Amino acid sequence: MVGANNKPEETDQPEVMIEVSVWRGDAEAGGFRTYHVPSRQSQTVLDIVTYIQRNLDPELTYRFACRVGMCGSCGMTVNGKPRWTCRTHASQVISNGKLTIEPLRNMTKVKDLAVDMTPFFDKWVEAKGAFVPTKTRHDEIEAIKPDSKERRAADAAVECINCGVCYSACDVVAWKPDYLGPAAINRSWTLVNDPRDGAQAERLKVLASDAGCSNCHSHQSCATYCPNLLNPTRSIAGVKRRVMVAALKGEV
Amino acid sequence: MTALRIYMAQRISAMIMVPLVFMHLGMIIYAVQGGLSAEEILGRTRGSIFWACFYGLFVTAVSVHGAAGIRVIVTEMVSLRKGTADLLTYGIFLLLFVMGARAVVAVTMP
Ligand code: SF4
Ligand code: SF4
Ligand code: FES
Description:
Chain A is an alpha+beta fold.
């Protein structure tokens, strides 16, 4: 508790401490180190990691930027589950006064809690997650009706912050490292539904490839853990339907 | 075999199996409730083109479905070369098909 003069309030209560095990190491080796962090009101998991780095162990490496759930850089595995740490309240996840914090799964560790997200973003490019325009500045702007089926499908999937939480939660990515994964296919699905895009045929070919949508088992870990409450499983199911129809027509 | 083809083979075989499974279950209940003996059942299935086609289709769909499913599980657990995975898939299909076809022949040949 912080008092009006910004100093901790004097109370008779002994300070409650959280036992935090943090994974320290790199791609080759590592293990857990335990720290004791004072419990605070409205404390997030990122606050705890920051407390450790500022007060207990300045060598601890981790990644964050916005602290408000916008940038998608603070993903970590907290008590075994992938989460955005800046918007995960410690009180929601602490069990028996303990917290375990590890790097995200399915990505190579760089140091401590920071992972290499390059393959994750490369797969966005591979899945043709960039819009390919078909018009020039001299053409009329194409009107897209907000309540059209395509626009609604794209809207439902578009608010992704690229945090990699779903990618880390997906067992198929763990088993088949080439699999594009939920985030990249979810992104592609928004473009599959964009009538202005000029790369539909190429995109469907990638989505139909051995790295594509048919790897997904629809077991919904991605949808369970996506902090933005997106449902990549539903997007992938949509892609599967499109790809099946295209395959039956001999287009992919 | 591409991942997509295997995926499609598995979904389509599943669609074929759904009504067949229900008919098969219905048949079992009918035979048990009606107290049919083995001879009476065989008396109806032997020489019947309908039952030969019904169970022939069932066995084919099961063989495709099982072979595709086992391939997916195995290739997720161990890394196989494509040729090896294809061989495994055809092998499992053949095994299931031969075992199933023997049963169909035994029950439906006059
Ligand atoms: S539903 Fe598909 S993409 Fe999502 S976690 Fe499961 S296998 Fe991965
Ligand atoms: S779909 Fe959700 S979990 Fe996956 S990267 Fe986007 S915001 Fe993160
Ligand atoms: S720090 Fe930006 S989303 Fe958590």
